[in-house]
Each structure stands twice: as structure tokens, then as C-alpha cells.
Amino acid sequence: MEHEALGEARAWILGAIGEPLLNYLLPEGATSEEGGTAGPIEGEFFSAVAELRRKLPEDWDEQTQKQAFRSWLLQKGEGDKTVARIVHERTCVDDVESGDDAVTAALIEVAQNVYPALLIPAEPLPFPALIQPEVDTAFHAAAYQNGGVFTRAIARDSGLSSVFTQDSDPIHSQFNYQANTGHGGALQLATLPSELLLSAWRDVRETMGPVGKFIERVMFRWDMLRSALLGNSVDAVAKIAFTGVLLPDGRAVAFGDGVVRTVTQAERDRVPEGLKGKISGYSGDGEVVTINYDGDVLLEYRFPYRLRLSGDLSESWVDSDEMRPPADINRLALRLRFALMLSMDSTPRAQLIQTWVAFDEPPRPGSSISWSDPRHGAGFTPVRLTSEDVDRWCEWFDILNDSRVDKIELALSRILRALAERRDPSDVLVDSVIAWENLFGTKDGEPTFRITMCLTKLLKEGLEERVKFRTELGKIYALRSRVVHGSGELKATDMVKCQEALDVAISAIRVLVSRRQDILDLKDGALRSAALLLDG
């Protein structure tokens, strides 16, 4: 093929299928000969494409012709392989395992045939949508057309066939499940190949590695799901994304049993469009800091995932402790957020604001996602963390990651709500005083006197300073009573006291967890307040 014609052919094909798929079909340097002329394989392929285009109806527009070309690449040819795979394998030898059993071997065959469809650029929807498509529609069609060999292998497998409700046609079979994440549903056997392949693609798409790496992830996903279906506990991943701060470039940090790192582009692509957007602010040295509302920092946490097959999805899945959602995830996130706030000596305070939560569950990896828009909460200022900031964050997390802190968890959560979620100063006041009461409250005696005395003794030194401080705390308590009983609107001076109530609550926890752990040894507010008041 002439050099000019070769260039035109490549340009048309590139516009139809994109660079990743073209490189898969005809790897650079493996097909063209010196001087830019087409080698035998490339020339044969381009000639076949030219012949295909000549056969297409003349009234088809350019877009329809390109769609027909993509469909042709995904048609099956010799050896039940797609045309794209046949072209690829004439120039490349992929390092792909064969599979240890019939089901695995069938899935590998499906993955090799469908992989080219994943390389086609996804067309954005022509209208606003909650989430834009990750892959081209050709992928779902290819997964369905090729997936039959896999679903039939499952129907013939003695261990797996009993998992699915039986139908005269195996492809219509499904299983109902409930999981210890609080999620559940029905998964059809016919959609299982696309679920597995898409989840594996999310794992490797940013690196665009060889086919063998993709197959490895498909096998990993399948092994995990099969083990869960057969009643075993498997390791799954929970991901919680936060906005508010940026990590130092490339920094990933271990916090307890979790890891905090930067959100990847593949993860960001899964977030609803309505959550996207940016906010900028200035650092202390005048640097512009820009963050994403959908989150820049991610907590990744591995936990034992359990799945229970169920004939009736209306049954409760929390009738046993092992089927309850893992509480440690929320505990870790709470301490992570509070530790950052304590570690940063800045005004306004640095905040880690939760934006979305996703469970990478074996039945539907990446699809169990919930979110909240940080723009609906209180305002915040973007912060770029330094390595020193992260080190202090880790130190405070270690202090908070103490079982004794579990006793005042309500105070921690109320303070974070007041700081990140509450727009109304009266709500900040109420949450802050609830935190006070969680620390030192009791159902016995006069709570205002007892709690304000405890906070005063904990935070202030000297009689004169303590008398003045306790008087101010009493005024805050009286304001809170007015607010909760609906006795008038807040004045400008009252709003200052709302913020003071929050400052006191944060200061009290800072002292308790860092210098007065002896008080935290006690099981409730009554004992903590008594010990503090009777201590010298």
C-alpha cells in the first residue's frame, strides 16, 4: 500500500476505534516496514478494511460506517475468535494462562474475545446523566454474545450449578444474595461475564498493560466471587473518599488497618457527574490550592466479606453478628478525620470531609456506591498537606486509635458534624454541648454545674481564671437551653458563643486523649466527672 494511502487508512481507522485498540491490533514497530510502508500483516488488514468500506451502503454517514467497522472487529471468525483477536494474535503472543478447570478456561476465552471492546473509547451520552458510561456499548454486546460458553460451563459444574436458580435455559438463571455490607440483590448468570470483565478492566485501565495482566485480574475477580458463592469468607475492599485536603505527591500512608492515598482517575470516573466540581483557596504562603468536591484523598480498607445466598430478599441479613456491616470502617474514618483536625494548628481548621463510599463487592465490584455532596454542608478551605503535616496527622491518629476513645465516640462524631455539616450556628451549639455531656454528663444531680466544673478544671489553671471560664460556660449552657426550648432567635453575640462551645469541646478532647488518659479509663461520664472533680 502506498505511503499516502497508508496514512489515510490509519487515520480513518484511528478515528473509528481510537489509539489503544489500534495499537492492540497493530503494535507499533511490529507490522510496518522501514520507510513507513505497510508490512504484509498491516497491508492485509488495511485491504480488508477497505473492502469492508466498499461494501457498506453509500447512504451511510461517516459515524454509521465507523460503527459498522467496530462491529466487524468484534464478530467471530476462525476458531471462534473475534476478528480483532485474530489480527492481534498474528503479531503478538500473549502470556495467558489456560485455566485449571472448564469454567475458568471458558472465562479466559471470553475475556480474550471481549478485551478489544474495552479498548474502544466510550461515547459520552448526549444529555446530562448521573454517571457517564465507562465503556462503549460494544462491550456489553460483546460480553453477552461471547459469554454463553462461560455461563454454560457454570451450569454444568457440580459445585456452582446449585448456586443459581434453575431455568430451562441456563442463561436465564440467577442467584439472590445478601452480604455483610448491607447490600444484596439478584445477579443474573447472563450478566456475570460483563460484571467480572468490567471490574477487572477498572483495575488495569490506567496502566493499559498487556492482555495477560487483564486476564490475571479477571481470574482474581472470579476466584474471589467463586469462593464467596461457595460459602467462604474473602477479603474485600471498602473505599471512602474525602475532600478538603491534598496529600503530598505520591504519598500513601498506613493508618491502622487502612491505607490513605490519592484518588485515582478510574475511581473518579465512577463518581456521579453532579458531585464533580472544584474549589480553590490560598495557603498560608499565598499558594493557590485547588481540590475536587468529589474527593482527592481515599481511605482503602480490607475487611472479611461474607455473602449469604437467599431465596427471599425480604429476609433480614443482620440476624447474626457476622452479617452486620463492618463497624471498624466507620470507626477508622471517624478517627482519621478527627486526628487531622487536631494535628493542624490553623484557622479555619483543616477538614477531611467524606464524599463517597464504595464497596468492591465480588458480585458487583465497584457498583455499591453512595455519596454526599460537601457543598451542602458548612464551608471549608482547601489545604495542601506537607510531609510534616502528614507525620503529625499519623501521631494524632495513633493517640486516637485507642480502645478507651471508643467511650467518647459520640463526642467525636458530634464535633465533626458541627464542624463539617452544620450551617446554622444553633446546630453547632447543640452538637457541641452534646459532646460536653458525652464526656462528663450524668443523669444524677445538676448537669450544668457538674459539666461546666469538669471542663473548667480540665482546661484552666488558677482560681480567678477558672471562675471566669466557668461563668462563660454557664452562659453557653443557658443559651443552649433557650435554643432547644425555642425561646427566641440568636443574636450576633450568641453566634460567637456557638463557636466557643465547639472550641471548648475540641480542646477538652485534645487534653483527655493526650494528657488525661486516666480519665478515659473510666467507663462513663458520671465516673469521669467524679474522678476529675475529686482529683486534688
Multimerization status: single chain
Structural class of the helices, strands and pairings? alpha+beta
Overall geometry comes to elongated
Report strand %: 5-15%
- N→C terminal distance: 96 Å
Record field, number of beta strands: 13
For the largest sheet, list the strands in their spatial order: 5-6-9-3-11-12
Estimated radius of gyration:
30 Å
Low-confidence stretches: none
Q: Let me know the average pLDDT.
A: 87
Q: Give the helix level as a range of percent.
A: 40-55%
So how many helices?
Answer: 19
Largest sheet: number of strands, sense, barrel closure: 6 strands, antiparallel
Short description:
This protein has 536 residues and is of the alpha+beta class. The protein is built from 19 helices and 13 strands. The protein has helices at 3-25, 40-55, 62-73, 83-89, 102-118, 137-146, 148-156, 192-204, 211-229, 265-269, 327-343, 387-400, 409-420, 425-440, 447-459, 463-484, 492-514, 517-520, 525-534, and strands spanning 174-179, 184-188, 234-243, 245-246, 253-255, 258-262, 278-282, 288-292, 297-305, 307-309, 353-360, 365-371, 383-384.
Please give a structural write-up.
With 536 residues, this protein is α+β, with helices and mostly antiparallel strands. Among the domains are: 87 residues, no CATH class; 153 residues, no CATH class; 131 residues, no CATH class. Helices cover 49% and strands 13% of the residues. It has 19 helices and 13 strands. The protein has a 6-stranded antiparallel β-sheet with strand order 5-6-9-3-11-12. A 3-stranded antiparallel β-sheet has the order 2-1-10, with no helix packed on it. The protein has a two-stranded parallel sheet with strand order 4-13. Helix 14 crosses helix 15. The longest helix is centred in the first third of the chain and has 23 residues. The chain is elongated. The model has no long low-confidence stretch (mean pLDDT 87).
